[in-house]
Design a protein that fits this description.
496 residues, alpha/beta, Nucleotidyltransferase, domain 5, five-stranded mixed sheet
Amino acid sequence: MAADLFLGLDVGTSSVKSILISVDGGVAAVATAPLSLDTPRPGWAEQDPEAWWDASRTVIRAVVDQRPNARVAAVGVSGQMHSSVFLDKRGAVIRPALLWCDGRTTAECREIETRAGGETQLRNWVCNPALEGFTLPKVLWLRNHEPAAFARLATVLLAKDFVRLRLTGSIATEPSDASGTLMFDPAHMRWSREILDAVDLAPSLLPAVAGSAEVLGQVTKEAAAVTGLAAGTPVVGGGADNACGAAGVGAISPGDAVSSWGTSGTVLAPTAQPRVDPKLRAHTFCHVTPDVWYVIGVVLSAGGAFAWYGDQCARELPDGGGGRDAQLVAEAANVPPGADGVTFLPYLQGERTPHRDASLRGAFTGLSLAHSRAHLTRAVLEGVCFALRDSLTILQELGLAPGQLVLTGGGAKSAFIRQLQADVFGLPVTTVNREEGGSYGAALLAAVGAGAFPDLETAARRTLTRQPPTPANPEIHRTYEPIYDRFRKRLVASRA
């Protein structure tokens, strides 16, 4: 009999990914299933939660079948934050989930601010502002716009917690994901009765909260039959995608910092106390390890902006195996910093940090007949880096000044993009010996929950190795200073 393996599942926006890891951290199996995104109107974004479950069943079965003689000792689940799953009293999905990048709830955000008595109270109650992406505005939107659906509402869950419900029959969540709902108090680790009372919502709509490495259910016979897992396999709390992604590269202690490119982009720094940005530009959430929080800046369109650009401007290039992206990046590498005057504003779905404006939209500026696709590609990559630098600047203002950034996601895979980030940020960047991100962090939490490690810190130390850093080029960083200033001025001009 082979040694025990630990399964990590990541319910993303564009795909669901499943991995199996061994106790020494080696990846034993990987499977991915794509997801589609529905945009019924500009600025809206929805997915069917049952599609998450269908994809999850597929990828779990795929990795289990790859290692038929191994025992899966535990499962951890990561997933996209904020996205709202509305369930009736039978656990049936009422309507498609409103996603983290859905911007329809501006009126509900203003309603929350009014009912709470302003942002000062929100800072005190939930450590964060009312933003369209968060879960609470989506619940109020359902009440305001689809009252018949709201009348059926019995439970509000997040993406990974819905998948765990289908796996185990248990309704629960954990602090890192609860923090992003605007209904949880990260500082006191509890649902905020104050905000729920202010908006007249019943606490019974929300699940119980337990630890990220705590076992919150066991795989049912029904789920075992469709996934290949053994009935009774423990499933731990898991975590939000950003928190699990940070855990998956070992960024779980104060002093660490992570830059991540998924569909969205983030810059995240763990803290020993719940530190809140006085201007509420960045967010404060619980981490997946006890007594650690993090401050995070969020760019709504990072890898998503690059994927959109490739779909629209490079359709003739083959997309299989990353070939299209690699060719585009190679073209961009031949263009000088600043893309000969072309600037890209990556605000295709509005923006969170630092602008807090769901109505922001993307743009290319500075175009001329002399510019080629390579210039546009370079501008897209630079625009994403500049938007992430906005978030890094806020963390530095708050005293969270990392000596280097750990990269994960799409921005970690290309040597050119790694160097580009180092040069734009003015900091060395590094990667780890694993590329699985949130699914890897979820698998580490499963291993802790199964007793393979005493805690997440030990699990990360024994399984992850950081690579030699890529230093910033001081001359190119100085070159980028006026180009970054141009980026910010073009944004101001676009909003005038």
